[in-house]
From TrEMBL:
GO terms for molecular function: carboxylic ester hydrolase activity; lysophosphatidic acid acyltransferase activity. It comes from Capsicum baccatum (Peruvian pepper). This is AB hydrolase-1 domain-containing protein. Residues 80-324 form the AB hydrolase-1 domain. It comes from the Eukaryota. One of its GO terms (biological process) is lipid homeostasis.
Amino acid sequence: MATALCTLILPKVVQSNRGISRTRAVLTRDAKMKVPYEVKQGQSRLFHKLPSGLNMEVLFQKGLQPDEEEKRTCTKNPPLVFVHGSFHAAWCWAEHWLPFFSQNGYDCYALSLLGQGETDSPAAAVAGTLQTHALDIADFIHKEIKLPPVLLGHSFGGLIVQYYIANTREAVKGSDSEKKSLFPNLSGAALVCSVPPSGNSGLVWRYLFSKPLAAFKVTRSLAAKAFQTSLPLCKETFFSEGMEDQLVARYQQLMTESSRMPLFDLRKLNASLPVPRLEDPAFKVLIVGAKDDFIVDIEGLDETGRFYGVPTVCIDGVAHDIMIDCSWRKGAQSILSWLNDLK
């Protein structure tokens, strides 16, 4: 299996995407995850070369094409670009949401940030900053995506998306033409169980005062990485009670293998927050949370909604890892309804 995954074969369908053929330069690589994620039927593993020379893993699934009658009446759907959070990689979107959205006509690209999944690691103690991660995403969009995409970010990936869209809107105002080229325009953004604009410090303090046991568990699970060795703690942190232990164990292994280095230096990150405020009321932002989220509480979700001046969507019966939880379809359907209204 590992040998098969180390050989990159690009299907014909991918060749039609602008610039994507440049990833042909990366044909053989050693798998970085000890148990590599095997892509599903219809998906491709690509590698986008960043300006730094490092290669970013991209899992791609092309949207189902409409028939001739539908082509005459519908507009082209924007591509979807998915950004994961800590301890995850592109695979977390490929399990359910890439097949779901591609079946509904959306080209889907899931990225693995530096030091995560099969993406190369920088020569540093941490993978990057809000700015460097956002610039890597922007480079991919600029070189590989034709239409302005919708950017979707989960957890800390949502914070990266918030930084991206703030800089995109500044550029649109014409204040910095060079910045405009660095942060290509978007059709919209979806923040999924996202860390709020002020970071995770408010979440931590609320837990300490109102839920001290939960605060201890979250700290032990994430900061001490105990979720990697304790199946019950992994389940409580990321998934619903109804999630099968067999699936939790599989995702636990993938999360452990995915994150070779921290996404951020959290102290430096929190010192740089909040992210800049989005001033353009016309820009479309969807904020989706999970009622049973053990990491981002309802107040954190509402903070993000107030920041962007939009109502939030809180989904019952689903936990933090909304895209791979047992009720993953609930979140996907909510986002699909919003996407269809963008047309």
